[in-house]
Amino acid sequence: MRCPFCLSENDKVVDSRSGDEGSTIRRRRECADCRRRYTTYERVERQLLTVVKKGGVRETFDRDKIKRGLIRACWKRPISEEDIESIVTSLEAELYGTFESDLPSHAVGERLMELLRSLDQVAYVRFASVYREFQDVRDFVDELEPIIAADSTRFSN
Q1: Number of structural domains, the chain?
Q2: pTM attached to this predicted model
């Protein structure tokens, strides 16, 4: 591994730990030349999934794009970075376990909405408003009615 500070290839691993529910290995390294420490992550390289969008446009599955969307939906909500990373990791594992190469974009969006709905209703509605391209307030009401009905049923019993 090349040191990001002095570009030397002379380093040693100081610490290794499993991360992301066993899907990555986090390594702390120390450069033998400049003595600075840095962190690297090791992850299994999988065959790339291709997301097929509505109009037939194809793009490579990008976990960072999903994470950015979740961060926007969860902005100013009591949701930790670890919760977001956990959702992205479990979604990615589920998609790679279900699809071999091409996956429809609606499979990603619908599954993300399910995961968000169980985590935080406000983040869910924010995400749904973008994903489902809400045009007016009625779209929000239509999305909220089943949530409100489920909550009132749950609290009345």
Answers
A1: 2
A2: 0.65
Distance CA 21, CA 35 (A): 30
Q: How many Cα atoms within 13 Å fall on the side-chain side of residue 69?
A: 19
**Domain of residue 115, residue span:** 50-156
Dihedral sign computed on CA atoms, order 97, 103, 70, 131: negative
Asked, for residue 117, whether it belongs to a domain, the answer is yes
Q: Are residues 38 and 115 in the same domain?
A: no
Q: Is residue 3 part of a domain?
A: no
Q: What is the pLDDT of residues 42-75, one digit of tens each?
A: 988 778 899 999 899 999 999 999 999 999 999 9
Pairing verdict, β 50-52 and 58-60? antiparallel
Closest among 22, 28, 20 to 1, alpha carbons compared: 28
Same domain, 26 and 56: no
Compute the distance between CA of residue 104 and CA of residue 117 in angstroms, rounded to an integer. 21
